[in-house]
Protein backbone atom coordinates (compact mmCIF):
# COMPACT_ATOMS: atom_id res chain seq x y z
CA UNK A 1 0.00 0.00 0.00
CA UNK A 2 1.40 3.36 -1.07
CA UNK A 3 1.05 6.50 0.97
CA UNK A 4 2.26 10.09 0.85
CA UNK A 5 3.43 11.81 4.00
CA UNK A 6 1.22 14.58 5.36
CA UNK A 7 1.89 17.25 7.95
CA UNK A 8 -0.35 16.41 10.91
CA UNK A 9 0.77 18.17 14.08
CA UNK A 10 -1.99 16.94 16.36
CA UNK A 11 -1.10 13.29 15.96
CA UNK A 12 1.19 11.54 18.38
CA UNK A 13 3.68 8.71 18.13
CA UNK A 14 6.20 7.35 20.60
CA UNK A 15 9.17 5.40 19.34
CA UNK A 16 10.75 2.86 21.69
CA UNK A 17 13.66 0.44 21.71
CA UNK A 18 15.72 -1.55 24.22
CA UNK A 19 12.71 -3.20 25.85
CA UNK A 20 13.64 -4.78 29.18
CA UNK A 21 11.74 -6.67 31.86
CA UNK A 22 13.39 -6.63 35.29
CA UNK A 23 12.18 -8.89 38.11
CA UNK A 24 13.54 -8.65 41.66
CA UNK A 25 13.50 -12.03 43.38
CA UNK A 26 13.98 -13.11 46.95
CA UNK A 27 17.49 -14.47 47.45
CA UNK A 28 18.42 -17.78 49.03
CA UNK A 29 16.51 -21.04 49.05
CA UNK A 30 14.31 -22.67 51.66
CA UNK A 31 15.73 -25.67 53.47
CA UNK A 32 14.09 -28.58 55.28
CA UNK A 33 15.71 -30.04 58.42
CA UNK A 34 15.06 -33.56 59.68
CA UNK A 35 16.52 -35.79 62.38
CA UNK A 36 18.50 -38.92 61.57
CA UNK A 37 18.92 -41.71 64.19
CA UNK A 38 22.50 -41.86 65.44
CA UNK A 39 22.86 -45.48 64.48
CA UNK A 40 21.92 -44.76 60.91
CA UNK A 41 23.84 -41.54 60.61
CA UNK A 42 26.47 -41.56 57.91
CA UNK A 43 29.02 -38.99 56.97
CA UNK A 44 28.07 -37.53 53.63
CA UNK A 45 29.87 -35.01 51.48
CA UNK A 46 28.65 -31.46 51.76
CA UNK A 47 26.64 -30.56 48.64
CA UNK A 48 28.27 -27.97 46.41
CA UNK A 49 26.80 -24.50 46.88
CA UNK A 50 24.49 -23.36 44.10
CA UNK A 51 25.61 -20.76 41.60
CA UNK A 52 23.05 -18.36 43.05
CA UNK A 53 24.43 -18.82 46.57
CA UNK A 54 27.99 -18.24 45.38
CA UNK A 55 26.98 -15.08 43.54
CA UNK A 56 24.96 -13.75 46.50
CA UNK A 57 27.91 -14.31 48.85
CA UNK A 58 30.30 -12.57 46.42
CA UNK A 59 27.89 -9.65 46.01
CA UNK A 60 27.60 -9.23 49.78
CA UNK A 61 31.39 -9.29 50.26
CA UNK A 62 32.19 -6.90 47.44
CA UNK A 63 29.20 -4.60 47.63
CA UNK A 64 28.82 -5.03 43.86
CA UNK A 65 26.22 -6.63 41.62
CA UNK A 66 27.49 -10.05 40.51
CA UNK A 67 26.25 -12.10 37.53
CA UNK A 68 25.14 -15.63 38.46
CA UNK A 69 27.29 -18.23 36.71
CA UNK A 70 25.64 -20.04 33.77
CA UNK A 71 22.53 -17.84 34.02
CA UNK A 72 23.09 -15.92 30.78
CA UNK A 73 21.26 -16.58 27.53
CA UNK A 74 20.97 -14.61 24.31
CA UNK A 75 18.39 -12.29 25.86
CA UNK A 76 18.52 -12.65 29.65
CA UNK A 77 20.74 -12.99 32.72
CA UNK A 78 20.44 -13.19 36.51
CA UNK A 79 22.33 -10.82 38.84
CA UNK A 80 22.94 -11.13 42.58
CA UNK A 81 22.70 -7.87 44.54
CA UNK A 82 24.56 -6.85 47.71
CA UNK A 83 21.16 -6.59 49.45
CA UNK A 84 20.68 -10.34 49.07
CA UNK A 85 18.23 -10.45 46.18
CA UNK A 86 18.39 -11.89 42.67
CA UNK A 87 17.61 -9.69 39.67
CA UNK A 88 16.40 -11.22 36.40
CA UNK A 89 16.99 -9.04 33.31
CA UNK A 90 15.04 -10.21 30.26
CA UNK A 91 15.22 -8.37 26.93
CA UNK A 92 12.85 -8.39 23.94
CA UNK A 93 15.83 -8.32 21.56
CA UNK A 94 19.05 -10.35 21.76
CA UNK A 95 21.91 -8.79 23.74
CA UNK A 96 24.60 -11.48 23.75
CA UNK A 97 25.98 -14.20 21.50
CA UNK A 98 28.16 -17.21 22.34
CA UNK A 99 31.48 -17.49 20.52
CA UNK A 100 33.22 -20.62 19.28
CA UNK A 101 35.13 -20.73 22.58
CA UNK A 102 31.87 -20.90 24.53
CA UNK A 103 32.25 -17.41 26.01
CA UNK A 104 29.41 -14.90 25.86
CA UNK A 105 30.03 -11.63 24.05
CA UNK A 106 27.89 -8.54 23.69
CA UNK A 107 26.41 -8.33 20.22
CA UNK A 108 28.45 -6.04 17.98
CA UNK A 109 27.33 -5.56 14.38
CA UNK A 110 30.41 -3.55 13.37
CA UNK A 111 31.78 -4.91 10.09
CA UNK A 112 35.39 -5.97 9.72
CA UNK A 113 37.45 -7.43 6.88
CA UNK A 114 38.37 -11.01 7.89
CA UNK A 115 40.95 -13.37 6.34
CA UNK A 116 38.56 -16.32 5.88
CA UNK A 117 34.97 -14.97 5.75
CA UNK A 118 35.33 -11.75 3.80
CA UNK A 119 33.36 -8.88 5.37
CA UNK A 120 31.74 -9.99 8.61
CA UNK A 121 30.31 -8.47 11.83
CA UNK A 122 32.29 -8.71 15.05
CA UNK A 123 29.72 -10.74 17.03
CA UNK A 124 26.11 -11.50 16.07
CA UNK A 125 23.69 -14.41 16.32
CA UNK A 126 23.71 -14.92 12.55
CA UNK A 127 26.99 -16.17 11.06
CA UNK A 128 26.55 -13.80 8.13
CA UNK A 129 29.28 -12.53 5.81
CA UNK A 130 29.33 -10.12 2.88
CA UNK A 131 31.26 -10.03 -0.37
CA UNK A 132 34.61 -8.31 -0.78
CA UNK A 133 33.67 -7.59 -4.39
CA UNK A 134 33.64 -9.45 -7.69
CA UNK A 135 31.36 -12.33 -8.69
CA UNK A 136 31.14 -14.01 -5.26
CA UNK A 137 27.75 -14.07 -3.48
CA UNK A 138 26.82 -10.73 -1.95
CA UNK A 139 25.59 -12.45 1.24
CA UNK A 140 26.40 -15.86 2.72
CA UNK A 141 24.75 -17.32 5.81
CA UNK A 142 25.46 -20.90 6.99
CA UNK A 143 22.45 -22.10 8.97
CA UNK A 144 20.79 -25.32 10.15
CA UNK A 145 23.01 -27.73 8.24
CA UNK A 146 22.74 -25.75 5.01
CA UNK A 147 23.57 -22.33 3.65
CA UNK A 148 21.70 -19.35 2.25
CA UNK A 149 23.46 -17.15 -0.28
CA UNK A 150 22.19 -14.14 -2.20
CA UNK A 151 23.90 -12.87 -5.35
CA UNK A 152 23.79 -9.52 -7.09
CA UNK A 153 22.99 -9.84 -10.85
CA UNK A 154 26.47 -8.78 -11.88
CA UNK A 155 29.88 -8.17 -10.36
CA UNK A 156 30.20 -6.08 -7.23
CA UNK A 157 32.61 -3.25 -6.62
CA UNK A 158 34.89 -3.35 -3.58
CA UNK A 159 32.90 -2.23 -0.51
CA UNK A 160 33.42 0.75 1.74
CA UNK A 161 32.81 -0.22 5.38
CA UNK A 162 31.16 2.08 7.91
CA UNK A 163 29.84 0.69 11.20
CA UNK A 164 27.39 -2.14 10.42
CA UNK A 165 27.10 -1.25 6.71
CA UNK A 166 29.04 -2.22 3.59
CA UNK A 167 28.44 0.11 0.63
CA UNK A 168 29.06 -1.16 -2.91
CA UNK A 169 29.07 1.99 -5.01
CA UNK A 170 27.90 2.14 -8.62
CA UNK A 171 26.83 -1.49 -9.04
CA UNK A 172 24.81 0.12 -11.84
CA UNK A 173 25.31 3.73 -12.97
CA UNK A 174 24.41 5.96 -10.01
CA UNK A 175 22.99 2.98 -8.08
CA UNK A 176 24.55 1.70 -4.85
CA UNK A 177 24.01 -1.57 -2.98
CA UNK A 178 24.13 -1.33 0.82
CA UNK A 179 24.44 -4.48 2.99
CA UNK A 180 23.88 -4.12 6.74
CA UNK A 181 24.44 -6.62 9.54
CA UNK A 182 21.67 -7.04 12.13
CA UNK A 183 21.83 -8.76 15.51
CA UNK A 184 19.97 -11.76 14.08
CA UNK A 185 20.22 -11.35 10.32
CA UNK A 186 20.91 -8.78 7.63
CA UNK A 187 19.24 -6.23 5.42
CA UNK A 188 20.15 -5.00 1.97
CA UNK A 189 19.11 -1.83 0.23
CA UNK A 190 19.30 -0.59 -3.35
CA UNK A 191 19.85 3.18 -3.45
CA UNK A 192 18.87 4.95 -6.69
CA UNK A 193 20.53 8.37 -6.63
CA UNK A 194 19.13 10.19 -9.65
CA UNK A 195 16.35 10.29 -12.22
CA UNK A 196 18.82 9.11 -14.84
CA UNK A 197 19.65 6.07 -12.76
CA UNK A 198 15.94 5.37 -12.17
CA UNK A 199 15.41 5.10 -15.93
CA UNK A 200 17.64 1.99 -16.06
CA UNK A 201 15.45 -0.89 -17.38
CA UNK A 202 17.16 -3.25 -14.92
CA UNK A 203 15.28 -1.51 -12.07
CA UNK A 204 11.87 -2.53 -13.39
CA UNK A 205 12.43 -5.89 -11.71
CA UNK A 206 15.13 -6.75 -9.18
CA UNK A 207 15.90 -10.44 -9.58
CA UNK A 208 18.63 -11.75 -7.26
CA UNK A 209 19.77 -15.39 -7.45
CA UNK A 210 18.95 -17.13 -4.14
CA UNK A 211 20.81 -20.36 -3.35
CA UNK A 212 19.79 -22.60 -0.44
CA UNK A 213 21.72 -25.92 -0.56
CA UNK A 214 20.34 -28.30 2.08
CA UNK A 215 17.34 -26.02 2.65
CA UNK A 216 14.20 -24.90 0.81
CA UNK A 217 13.03 -21.34 0.06
CA UNK A 218 9.31 -20.60 -0.27
CA UNK A 219 6.85 -17.72 -0.15
CA UNK A 220 5.00 -16.87 3.08
CA UNK A 221 1.23 -16.55 3.07
CA UNK A 222 1.40 -13.18 4.87
CA UNK A 223 4.06 -11.74 2.57
CA UNK A 224 7.79 -12.16 2.19
CA UNK A 225 9.59 -15.48 2.11
CA UNK A 226 11.11 -18.08 4.42
CA UNK A 227 13.76 -20.77 4.28
CA UNK A 228 12.88 -24.11 5.90
CA UNK A 229 14.85 -27.21 6.85
CA UNK A 230 14.01 -30.82 5.94
CA UNK A 231 11.35 -30.90 8.66
CA UNK A 232 9.62 -27.84 7.21
CA UNK A 233 10.65 -25.65 10.16
CA UNK A 234 11.53 -22.04 9.23
CA UNK A 235 15.16 -21.21 9.99
CA UNK A 236 15.25 -17.88 8.15
CA UNK A 237 12.55 -15.43 7.12
CA UNK A 238 12.36 -12.24 5.12
CA UNK A 239 9.67 -9.61 4.94
CA UNK A 240 8.33 -7.51 2.12
CA UNK A 241 10.47 -4.60 1.02
CA UNK A 242 9.82 -0.96 1.87
CA UNK A 243 10.52 1.67 -0.78
CA UNK A 244 10.78 5.41 -0.06
CA UNK A 245 12.09 8.64 -1.50
CA UNK A 246 13.82 11.62 0.15
CA UNK A 247 10.90 14.06 0.19
CA UNK A 248 10.71 13.79 3.98
CA UNK A 249 13.86 15.88 4.41
CA UNK A 250 12.14 18.87 2.84
CA UNK A 251 8.87 18.29 4.73
CA UNK A 252 10.67 17.89 8.06
CA UNK A 253 12.66 21.10 7.56
CA UNK A 254 9.45 23.00 6.75
CA UNK A 255 7.68 21.55 9.79
CA UNK A 256 10.57 22.39 12.13
CA UNK A 257 10.74 25.96 10.84
CA UNK A 258 6.99 26.39 11.31
CA UNK A 259 6.86 24.95 14.83
CA UNK A 260 10.26 26.07 16.11
CA UNK A 261 11.07 22.47 17.06
CA UNK A 262 14.44 20.85 16.49
CA UNK A 263 14.30 17.25 15.28
CA UNK A 264 17.14 14.76 15.66
CA UNK A 265 18.92 13.96 12.42
CA UNK A 266 17.91 10.67 10.80
CA UNK A 267 19.82 8.60 8.27
CA UNK A 268 17.21 8.38 5.53
CA UNK A 269 19.23 5.68 3.74
CA UNK A 270 18.83 3.31 6.71
CA UNK A 271 15.20 3.84 7.71
CA UNK A 272 12.18 5.36 6.03
CA UNK A 273 11.52 8.83 7.48
CA UNK A 274 8.07 9.36 8.95
CA UNK A 275 6.99 11.82 6.27
CA UNK A 276 8.60 10.21 3.23
CA UNK A 277 6.55 9.05 0.31
CA UNK A 278 6.77 5.29 0.61
CA UNK A 279 5.20 2.00 -0.36
CA UNK A 280 5.43 -1.69 0.50
CA UNK A 281 6.70 -4.08 -2.19
CA UNK A 282 6.05 -7.83 -2.28
CA UNK A 283 9.16 -10.00 -1.98
CA UNK A 284 8.63 -13.26 -3.87
CA UNK A 285 10.56 -16.45 -4.54
CA UNK A 286 10.32 -17.36 -8.22
CA UNK A 287 12.28 -20.47 -9.09
CA UNK A 288 15.79 -19.88 -7.72
CA UNK A 289 15.45 -16.09 -7.64
CA UNK A 290 14.34 -13.56 -5.06
CA UNK A 291 12.21 -11.03 -6.93
CA UNK A 292 11.19 -7.47 -6.02
CA UNK A 293 9.30 -5.24 -8.44
CA UNK A 294 9.72 -1.54 -7.59
CA UNK A 295 6.83 0.91 -7.77
CA UNK A 296 7.71 2.65 -11.05
CA UNK A 297 5.51 5.66 -10.29
CA UNK A 298 7.46 6.32 -7.09
CA UNK A 299 10.77 5.40 -8.72
CA UNK A 300 10.37 7.69 -11.74
CA UNK A 301 7.60 10.11 -10.81
CA UNK A 302 7.93 13.85 -11.53
CA UNK A 303 7.61 14.69 -7.81
CA UNK A 304 10.05 12.02 -6.62
CA UNK A 305 12.96 13.34 -4.58
CA UNK A 306 16.17 11.30 -4.92
CA UNK A 307 17.75 9.19 -3.65
CA UNK A 308 15.11 6.45 -3.62
CA UNK A 309 15.70 3.44 -1.35
CA UNK A 310 14.40 -0.14 -1.78
CA UNK A 311 14.98 -2.07 1.44
CA UNK A 312 13.95 -5.64 2.35
CA UNK A 313 15.13 -7.51 5.49
CA UNK A 314 16.04 -11.06 6.52
CA UNK A 315 16.26 -12.55 10.02
CA UNK A 316 16.75 -15.84 11.89
CA UNK A 317 13.83 -14.90 14.18
CA UNK A 318 15.56 -14.24 17.48
CA UNK A 319 13.73 -11.03 18.36
CA UNK A 320 10.70 -11.50 20.61
CA UNK A 321 8.53 -8.56 19.66
CA UNK A 322 6.24 -7.45 16.87
CA UNK A 323 3.74 -4.78 16.02
CA UNK A 324 0.32 -4.27 14.50
CA UNK A 325 -0.93 -1.32 12.48
CA UNK A 326 -4.58 -0.53 11.89
CA UNK A 327 -3.77 0.36 8.26
CA UNK A 328 -1.44 -2.65 7.80
CA UNK A 329 1.54 -0.40 7.11
CA UNK A 330 5.04 -1.90 7.31
CA UNK A 331 7.67 0.00 9.29
CA UNK A 332 10.89 -1.88 8.59
CA UNK A 333 13.29 -0.14 10.98
CA UNK A 334 13.39 -2.21 14.18
CA UNK A 335 11.57 0.47 16.19
CA UNK A 336 8.53 -0.27 18.35
CA UNK A 337 5.77 2.24 17.62
CA UNK A 338 2.92 3.31 19.88
CA UNK A 339 -0.01 5.55 19.03
CA UNK A 340 -0.99 7.43 15.89
CA UNK A 341 1.30 7.87 12.90
CA UNK A 342 2.08 11.54 12.15
CA UNK A 343 1.37 10.73 8.49
CA UNK A 344 -2.22 9.72 9.28
CA UNK A 345 -1.49 6.05 8.52
CA UNK A 346 -3.57 4.75 11.42
CA UNK A 347 -2.55 3.55 14.86
CA UNK A 348 0.30 1.29 15.93
CA UNK A 349 0.47 -1.14 18.84
CA UNK A 350 3.62 -3.02 19.83
CA UNK A 351 3.75 -6.46 21.47
CA UNK A 352 6.60 -8.03 23.44
CA UNK A 353 7.31 -11.53 24.68
CA UNK A 354 9.73 -12.46 27.47
CA UNK A 355 10.98 -15.88 28.53
CA UNK A 356 10.13 -16.04 32.24
CA UNK A 357 10.21 -19.80 32.82
CA UNK A 358 13.08 -19.37 35.29
CA UNK A 359 10.70 -17.52 37.63
CA UNK A 360 8.69 -20.65 38.35
CA UNK A 361 8.56 -21.24 42.11
CA UNK A 362 10.27 -17.94 42.92
CA UNK A 363 9.06 -15.20 45.24
CA UNK A 364 8.85 -12.03 43.13
CA UNK A 365 9.29 -8.79 45.03
CA UNK A 366 8.90 -6.32 42.18
CA UNK A 367 8.79 -6.11 38.38
CA UNK A 368 9.66 -3.24 36.05
CA UNK A 369 9.18 -2.92 32.31
CA UNK A 370 11.69 -0.45 30.84
CA UNK A 371 11.46 1.28 27.47
CA UNK A 372 13.82 3.75 25.87
CA UNK A 373 11.87 6.51 24.12
CA UNK A 374 13.80 7.88 21.16
CA UNK A 375 11.24 10.29 19.76
CA UNK A 376 7.74 11.74 20.20
CA UNK A 377 5.93 13.83 17.61
CA UNK A 378 3.88 15.78 20.16
CA UNK A 379 5.39 18.42 22.44
CA UNK A 380 2.74 17.80 25.12
CA UNK A 381 2.65 14.92 27.58
CA UNK A 382 1.43 11.78 25.83
CA UNK A 383 -0.16 8.95 27.87
CA UNK A 384 1.17 5.48 27.04
CA UNK A 385 -0.49 2.35 28.43
CA UNK A 386 1.03 -1.07 28.97
CA UNK A 387 -1.28 -4.10 29.09
CA UNK A 388 -1.14 -7.86 29.13
CA UNK A 389 -2.23 -9.26 25.76
CA UNK A 390 -2.64 -12.53 23.92
CA UNK A 391 0.55 -14.51 23.33
CA UNK A 392 2.93 -13.34 20.63
CA UNK A 393 4.08 -16.41 18.73
CA UNK A 394 6.21 -14.84 15.98
CA UNK A 395 8.44 -11.82 15.63
CA UNK A 396 8.26 -9.00 13.13
CA UNK A 397 5.22 -7.43 11.51
CA UNK A 398 1.82 -8.63 12.64
CA UNK A 399 -0.85 -8.03 9.95
CA UNK A 400 -3.10 -5.15 10.91
CA UNK A 401 -6.24 -7.06 9.93
CA UNK A 402 -5.20 -10.24 11.69
CA UNK A 403 -5.72 -11.73 15.11
CA UNK A 404 -3.00 -9.68 16.80
CA UNK A 405 -4.70 -6.36 16.05
CA UNK A 406 -8.13 -7.58 17.16
CA UNK A 407 -7.02 -9.53 20.24
CA UNK A 408 -7.59 -6.59 22.61
CA UNK A 409 -6.14 -6.27 26.06
CA UNK A 410 -6.34 -8.64 29.00
CA UNK A 411 -8.72 -7.86 31.83
CA UNK A 412 -6.11 -9.05 34.31
CA UNK A 413 -3.71 -6.78 36.21
CA UNK A 414 -1.89 -4.44 33.87
CA UNK A 415 0.90 -1.97 34.45
CA UNK A 416 0.41 1.71 35.19
CA UNK A 417 0.19 4.44 32.58
CA UNK A 418 3.39 6.33 31.87
CA UNK A 419 3.50 9.84 30.41
CA UNK A 420 5.98 10.50 27.61
CA UNK A 421 7.15 13.98 26.60
CA UNK A 422 8.96 15.24 23.51
CA UNK A 423 12.69 15.16 24.11
CA UNK A 424 14.80 18.30 24.39
CA UNK A 425 17.00 18.91 21.32
CA UNK A 426 20.19 17.87 23.14
CA UNK A 427 18.68 14.71 24.65
CA UNK A 428 18.95 11.60 22.51
CA UNK A 429 16.81 9.20 24.53
CA UNK A 430 15.06 8.69 27.81
CA UNK A 431 14.14 5.57 29.76
CA UNK A 432 10.55 5.14 30.93
CA UNK A 433 9.70 2.48 33.55
CA UNK A 434 6.39 0.79 34.23
CA UNK A 435 5.95 -0.85 37.64
CA UNK A 436 3.93 -4.06 37.73
CA UNK A 437 1.81 -5.34 40.62
CA UNK A 438 3.82 -7.87 42.61
CA UNK A 439 2.97 -11.51 41.83
CA UNK A 440 4.27 -14.83 43.11
Using brief descriptors, characterize the structure shown.
440 residues; mainly beta; twelve-stranded antiparallel sheet; ten-stranded mixed sheet; 9% helix; globular; disordered N terminus
Q: What is the tally of beta strands?
A: 34
* Low-confidence runs: 3-17, 28-43, 255-266, 394-427
Rounded to the nearest angstrom, the radius of gyration is 25 Å
Largest sheet: 12 strands, antiparallel
Distance between the termini: 46 Å
Q: What's the total helix number?
A: 5
Give the overall form: globular
Strand and helix map with partners:
Layout: E1 2-3, E2 13-26, H1 51-62, E3 66-67, E4 76-80, E5 85-91, E6 96-98, E7 104-106, E8 108-114, E9 118-123, E10 129-130, E11 139-143, E12 146-150, E13 160-162, E14 165-172, E15 175-182, E16 185-192, H2 195-198, E17 206-211, E18 216-219, E19 225-228, E20 234-238, E21 241-244, H3 247-259, E22 278-281, E23 283-286, E24 289-292, H4 296-300, E25 308-311, E26 313-315, E27 321-325, E28 336-340, E29 347-352, E30 364-376, E31 382-384, E32 396-398, H5 403-406, E33 418-420, E34 430-436
Parallel strand pairs: 27-32
Antiparallel strand pairs: 1-22, 2-5, 2-28, 2-30, 3-4, 4-5, 6-7, 8-9, 10-11, 11-12, 12-17, 13-14, 14-15, 15-16, 16-25, 16-26, 17-24, 18-19, 19-20, 20-26, 21-22, 21-25, 23-24, 27-29, 28-29, 30-34, 31-33
